[in-house]
Each structure stands twice: as structure tokens, then as C-alpha cells.
Write a structure and sequence with these properties.
single chain, 320 residues, alpha/beta, two-stranded antiparallel ribbon, 10 strands, 12% strand, globular
């Protein structure tokens, strides 16, 4: 009987120890989960991305310059390629039209960039859309648009599904951890100036990858709506192509030809994609980012296009 009682007590003790162990692990898991959730909420509501703060600063500079003056103005709108490609101080001086460089970041998406343009134009103004090729087929409000809205305009996050929000939240977290801020001289009109040399890494020295064919994506439909809105507001619109590093494969690209056919049929277009392919010595740190020599070449070409009458005639949006 004694042995039986001792065995039962041992069993009860072991059972109690097992319960305590399970309880400990349950508490541990709950603490970890609460910590993860707490960190996620802290990041979502409190973290300030240096990259997005930089974009916000660029936007503030450009918006202030756009508002500072009377009479018609010209906005050159696009991703960071516009930021590097167009010396808008010089364009403004030589054309007599206040010209604002509204180059920001391709990761914001077509819709975001067009919203910025819409907020800064008035009747009689002119918009030149120099759109990186990926803007036509990527989401209209892309990864950095999510991060911008998270930081500054949370109500706009309703544009994204919950699944897309989680995807972009994690994507931005990864990008923010690896972000390294670079400083360039910023002109009064919002352009990077005096970007010298070349820092193109070998892993980036490769052609852009396009879809197999052009389609009217959500981003393209947003472009159509924007151009119709501009026509209604007496705002002149032109579309041109981005400066990018030359690769021979682009000469045979069916996507570029289909994109060109679509744009030519529906908008007032400046040039052809192949007019703005640049040599390696004019590239800075990305196939889309030109250095000072590339900016000078693109700016001079744009000025010739202005003087040739390709820019400044009435806007026509032919989409039915």
C-alpha cells in the first residue's frame, strides 16, 4: 500500500510538473506573440522610414516651387529617372516657363505620381509625363505609396487589400533595414544637379525585363482618366519616354513597340523610346539614373523638342 501511495504521488507529481511545463511554454509563446504584435504595431504607427522622409522632403520642395509664382508653369512628372534627367532650372530659364521637376520614385506607382500632378496643376499649365516603363505594368499604387500613406495619410490605406497591406508592410520593413541615404544637390526647381561619375554595380548592368505584350492595366486606365481630367481642366499634357541605359535587345522588343503604338494612338507624344537610350558613360547608379553628362544631353534634347514645337501645342486626348 505504501509503495502504491508513493507511486501515485510520483505520478501526480510528474503530472503536475508536466502541466507546469506546458503552462510555461504557453506563457512563453504568448509573450513572444505579444512581443511580435507589439513590435508590428509600434512599426506601423511609429516608425519613420528615412527613404520616405526623403521622398516627402523632395515633394515639399517641388510643391513649394510649383506654388511660388504666377502664370502658367510646366511640370515634368515621373519617377526618380526624371529627378536625374531634367535640369529644370535651365529649362525654365531658357524657355521662360517656370518648370518644376516632379520626379519622385518609381516605387510609388503611376496612380500616386498622377495624384501629385493633379494636386499641383492649374488651368493653362502643362504636364510632361516621362514615365518609367515599369509604371505601365506595375500596380498603380505600389510599395512606396503604401509606406507613404502609412506614415502620412493612413486613410488612403483603404486602397489596398489586407493581404496587399501585409505584403507591402513586410516588404518595406526589409527595404528600410537595408536603406542607405545618399545626398545629392537639389536645385530650386526640384532636380538633382551635379551628379558626377558612374557607380553602376555589375548586378544592375542588365536590360529591363518587360511583359510579353502591352495590356491596359489599372495603371494605364489611371493614366487615361488623368489625361481626360487634364483636358477638362485646360491643362496641356504630353507623354515622353524615360532615359535608360542602351541594350541592343530593346531594338527588337515587342512590348516597347506595342507601348509606343498605344501612346501614339491616344496621346500627344514626344519622341520614341529609342531616342532616349543612353551610353554607359552617361549612367550614374541605375539603368534609369543618368549622371551630369546624361542630364545635360537629355535637357538639351528636350530644349530642341520645345523649340521644334513638339511641346506647347494644345493637348489632345484621343481615347474614346
Amino acid at each position: 500500500m505504501v509503495g502504491g501511495r508513493d507511486g501515485g504521488q510520483r505520478d501526480e507529481f510528474q503530472y503536475a510538473v508536466g502541466l507546469a511545463g506546458k503552462g510555461f511554454w504557453m506563457i512563453f509563446v504568448m509573450v513572444v506573440l505579444c512581443g511580435v504584435v507589439g513590435c508590428g504595431l509600434g512599426y506601423f504607427f511609429g516608425y519613420r522610414s528615412k527613404g520616405l522622409l526623403r521622398i516627402r522632403h523632395l515633394l515639399d520642395v517641388k510643391t513649394a516651387f510649383a506654388a511660388d509664382g504666377d502664370g502658367p508653369k510646366r511640370l515634368i512628372v515621373g519617377g526618380s529617372d526624371v529627378l536625374y534627367s531634367f535640369d529644370t532650372d535651365r529649362i525654365g530659364e531658357e524657355t521662360g516657363i517656370r518648370t518644376v521637376n516632379f520626379g519622385l520614385n518609381v516605387g510609388l506607382g503611376m496612380g500616386f505620381l498622377l495624384d501629385v500632378a493633379r494636386e499641383n496643376v492649374k488651368p493653362g499649365d502643362e504636364v510632361v509625363l516621362c514615365l518609367a516603363y515599369s509604371l505601365y505594368f506595375k500596380p498603380s499604387y505600389d510599395v512606396f505609396a503604401y509606406e507613404y500613406y502609412r506614415m502620412f495619410r493612413k486613410r488612403e490605406l483603404r486602397r489596398f487589400s489586407w493581404r496587399r497591406q501585409m505584403y507591402y508592410l513586410l516588404g518595406n520593413f526589409k527595404l528600410n533595414m537595408a536603406y542607405r541615404q545618399k545626398q545629392f544637390e537639389l536645385a530650386e526647381s526640384g532636380a538633382y544637379v551635379r551628379v558626377r561619375g558612374s557607380e553602376l554595380e555589375a548586378c544592375k548592368n542588365k536590360p529591363l525585363v518587360f511583359p510579353t505584350q502591352f495590356t491596359r492595366t489599372a495603371a494605364v486606365r489611371d493614366l487615361e482618366q488623368f489625361c481626360q481630367w487634364c483636358a477638362d481642366q485646360d491643362v496641356v499634357v504630353r507623354v515622353t519616354y524615360t532615359s535608360t541605359l542602351r541594350f541592343d535587345v530593346y531594338d527588337e522588343s515587342s512590348y516597347l513597340r506595342e507601348l509606343q503604338a498605344y501612346l501614339t494612338a491616344n496621346y500627344e507624344v514626344i519622341g520614341e523610346p529609342w531616342d532616349y537610350l543612353v551610353p554607359h558613360e552617361q549612367i550614374f547608379n541605375s539603368v534609369y539614373h543618368v549622371n551630369e553628362a546624361g542630364q545635360r544631353a537629355r535637357t538639351e534634347l528636350f530644349l530642341r523638342e520645345v523649340r521644334g514645337g513638339e511641346v506647347g501645342c494644345p493637348s489632345v486626348m484621343r481615347m474614346s
